[in-house]
Amino acid sequence: MSSLSQRPADAVVGQAIPHESATLHVTGAALYTDDLVGRTAGVLHAWPVQSPHARATVTALRVEAAYDVGGVVRVLTAADVPGLNDAGVKGDEPLFPDEACYVGQAVCWVLGETLEAARVGAAAVEVDYAPLPAIITVREAIAADAFQGGQPTLARGDVESGLAAATTVFAGEIDIAGQEHFYLETHASIALVDEAGQVFVQSSTQHPSETQSIVAQVLARPSNAVTVQCLRMGGGFGGKEMQPHGLAAVAALGATLTGRPVRIRLNRTQDMTMTGKRHGFHAQWRVGFDADARLVALDATLTSDGGWSLDLSEPVLARALCHIDNAYWIPDVRVNGRIARTNKTSQTAFRGFGGPQGMLVIEDILGRCAPLLGIDPAELRRRNFYVEGQATPYGQRVRHPERLVHAWDDLAARADLGRRREEVAVFNAEHPHAKRGLAITPVKFGISFNFTTFNQAGALVHVYTDGSVLINHGGTEMGQGLHTKMLQVAATRLGLPLERVRLAPTRTDKVPNTSATAASSGADLNGGAVKHACEQITGRLAEVAASGLGIDPSQVTFADGLVAGGGDSLTWEQVVALAYAQRVQLWASGFYRTEGLQWDSTAMQGSPFKYFAYGVAACEVEVDGFTGAYRTLRVDIVHDVGDSLSPLVDIGQIEGGFVQGAGWLTLEDLRWDESDGPTRGRLATQSASTYKLPSLSEMPEVFTVSLLEHAHEDGVVYGSKAVGEPPLMLAFSVREALRQAAAAFGPDGCAVHLATPATPEAVWWAIESARSQPVEASLPHRAEAAGVTIDSGDPSAQDEHEPDQPEPDAPPIAPESEQLADSGSPR
Amino acid sequence: MSRITVIVDGVSYTDEVEPRTLLVHYLRETVGKTGTVVGCDTSNCGACTVHLDGTSVKSCNVLAVQADGHEVTTIEGLSENGELHPVQKAFHECHALQCGYCTPGMIMQACDVLKNNPNPSEQEIREGLEGNLCRCTGYHNIVKAVQQAAGELSSQAVSS
């Protein structure tokens, strides 16, 4: 066992404690960025002038009329930018654009004494546009060959001979929906400039260091002249990983030009129409099975809907390709990826970061094809699991595949699946107008940033002379409980009660050069850094105590506020006082980098992940045959978090992740105006009144979550595993249960295609498809009903779903395109 | 401008407000009650829920002038003498919050549900909170917290 993962007895980590800010939250005292407005004197408010066109050249911008509006202080345009007029790291995100690339894009900003003055001022700005042809859907982009960024291929073996040797080859397509983050706190930033010109930005950001870097880039100031602080976020989910930067930069620009604090807080409509979302995907696939229904080959082309700029689309795509296997061994694989350039918001990180979309492709294939193979879908999944010794298509050995089997079997027993399957069959036989489905699906999710460089973190731990401890680390708190876990890590390593340790807000002038709090990696990385800092302190204090106790420093232990050894002990406070008197340093900075990672993003090969997180979910639904409306009757989950750092927090993440995933897959229906009318490209679902979020009415009637036992993860802080993203994909079980329930309206063994999101309407169409299938249909007809073709084996016959292959000169994902903004010239 | 007098968390405030000012903006920007937050702007999410004369309202859906002469209780006025209200305590203990942004509204609505129905079934709790959205928790612990608070409140009622 590594010293990093070794956990002392009675540790503070592992205790089921509430969120560290819970008292502040339940009393309304917790501060979010926009709550600071009333505590800041002389704040100016910002309002954007938004493009009504999906694509148009800005031919003239006349701002004079805005200054005639009472209370308008300043209009910010491209001419005001002293540095780079770009909000991204790739040079393709003009902050004040001369070509509007989507409906809602800000072309300039108005600052006012009040929000109302800024709003009226923005309405007074005159913009002349020359509209240009716009691409809205992924399929339009594919037809127009409109792509951006790298077009990577992940391959192993020889997919053509793999398919040729397969007993059965199916082909099909799927359109995967995007998703709005709908963090309850919209984007917000407040920027101030101090007497020495230091820019201070309070921002609701998951990536303060990159926000700092972009603000500096726009202002043409060095990073040391910009400080970014994030108190906490009212939800992030990836939506605040890159999207806050431009908003923070506008606020900072306004503050430097006016000398007054500037606040930007997007209202919900602005947030939904201006900021990026989960990427929708389109996938074409061919899959081969052997006579035992084992996967033998997969050929797929995934096209993500990148929106108007690259943003994080390349790494999102890379993660999608790396997760198309989910939990299954597929010997011969070829997966091509490409990013459509569409005139929409710049789609971005969202919990799972492409992983869910990649995994959905294989889960959809298995769900659709199981009836065509004549096998139970649960058995089909279970039969194809990885076993020890096998590697992923990108060449990483799958560690602990047996854990997935344990979780699967444990869940089957806990949820009594055998008996319930029989009950579902009985129910379905007795009810012609209502059907139930019971599905079980696995999750295997790689943990670490794909891009190795980002897998580093820093921390700062101060011990004051009274023995109290203050910690800082590079991660941000968005509700996921990272700060709670970091307090537990520090208390454990210092051997102190939790109350002795306090945590200060995340700031770039405390811990620099941090990675985004993303990729589920916050606790792994920052926990390692906090522990490292604490170990330096206990190392020094052990020497002090050893001389006091007359023993060797290696014999000194830290527990329960006592520093002990040789049968004697001193209090923590006594040792701290001794150390200070002896001029021993009482604080330390910690650093952590994940060992053992390597990744070639051009070749799409390597071992990018520290480990895999596993989980299994079983879901039972009941579907109404008249309307497609459904209820989720019961959900059971067994999930692997290693040795939990904080069980209440982890179970909360699992429950919340599952529900968010179920929202993506069943409710949340982003609609863009795809017509040729004047509002082409407009987001039609601009608020919670038209965009359906999971509410209490869709909660499963029974919902149980268990943590996988005996799950210690060697080499990770206190034996734990990351938990942020993996549970989202447990919601595949809902979709598959709906598919099975819809299919139950048709003849035995009928296969159905289910659209995403599987809204009641989509389920109703799946039911219709099932009902219309004749009882004794041939296999090709049954497949066709599910949108699947069966490969004839004739290589000259072009299949309609044949995956597009990249042009020979298609660009790879180049490592430099993943670099941080200030470590290379923008491409 | 209209002059209004509103009691907020036990303190009387008299202010000039624009007639179209929403109660939530009055509370946040004029009175300084930032514990009440704005989530969706369209009265779907309930993050801004407060009590108007003891009954829950979404304060983004009420004009400040409608509160003239009335009493408003926000999340900041719920605890008494530094003691958390049983619903606050239950949300804390049951980890019924993550990012915390929906929490004030969720607690204010839960109080209203329990006032009208001190012993709600799980189904009644779900229906009572249906107008409040949470993007983090998946609601499971929120329901558990309201159940725990109901138990605490009814045992208080028995003992008093």
Describe the model.
The complex is a heterodimer of chains A (827) and B (160). With 827 residues, chain A is an alpha+beta fold. Chain A has a domain at 22-29 and 456-593: Aldehyde oxidase/xanthine dehydrogenase, molybdopterin binding domain (Aldehyde Oxidoreductase, domain 4), CATH 3.30.365. Chain A is 28% helix and 22% strand. Chain A is built from 20 helices and 31 strands. In chain A, helix 14 packs parallel to helix 15. The longest helix of chain A is centred in the middle third of the chain and has 28 residues, at 522-549. Chain A starts with 21 loop residues before the first helix and ends in a 37-residue tail after the last strand. Mean pLDDT of chain A is 96; it is low at 819-827. Chain B is 36% helix and 16% strand. In chain B, strand 1 (2-8) and strand 2 (11-17) form a beta hairpin. Chain B has 160 residues and is an alpha+beta fold. The relative contact order of chain B is 0.15. Chain B folds into 2 domains: 2-77, Ubiquitin-like (UB roll), CATH 3.10.20; 86-159, [2Fe-2S]-binding domain (DNA polymerase, domain 1), CATH 1.10.150.120. Chain B has 5 helices and 5 strands. The mean pLDDT of chain B is 97. Chain B has helices spanning 23-31, 86-93, 103-116, 122-128, 140-159; strands at residues 2-8, 11-17, 49-52, 55-58, 71-73.
